[in-house]
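User: Fold this; tokens only.

Assistant: Input:
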Amino acid sequence: VDPDEVIRLCEEEYAKKNFKKHEVKTADFNEPREIAKKEEKHKLSIFEKQFCLGYKETPHSKSERMKNDLLQKVILDVICDETSSLYRELYDEGLINDMFEAGDLSAEDYLCFTFNGESKYPERVILRLKEEIARVKKEGIDAERFDEIKRSLVGSLICAFDNTEAIASNMLNCHFKGCGIYDIINTAKEITKEDAEMLLVRLFDPERSAVSLVEPQ
């Protein structure tokens, strides 16, 4: 497949349509540092209670974003991925199931972290998550665990090149981050435990955390 030919055909077909041309404008907005609300509760037609613990963060500069996005993935895995001690404890105690997940939303104008899932006792899970975050921030990241997660991250980035859809998505993400598709792998290989700990100090401010709970009707 010739990409240039595909683009040419798309433009040719688009030109035949009577679409009005609009200028795309990015709205200016000033996101406040503070969270909007500390807690939100709702009742819906669900079987199990659902929860989401979120942390609002200050977005990284464009020059920092690629590296810090990678470090954030490592930090989240350290705290509560399926191989972490916290995840195993919560799972063995029946406080979470395999629906539990943690993630980040990172862009030029916003950054936040979320921990969400189902639980009969969501308040207990949220408390344990906060305690684990505080512990890791205070004690630092275990060197062996950091190396394991880093190797897994690099491996997953390399494996993504075996999937054309993932390649296209990564190329788009890299374009907006101002980097090349191979730069991510090279940067992932170079990140250190010290890098992660320095970033961790700046993240997860309890004053900028919020909780959303959904309970069965």
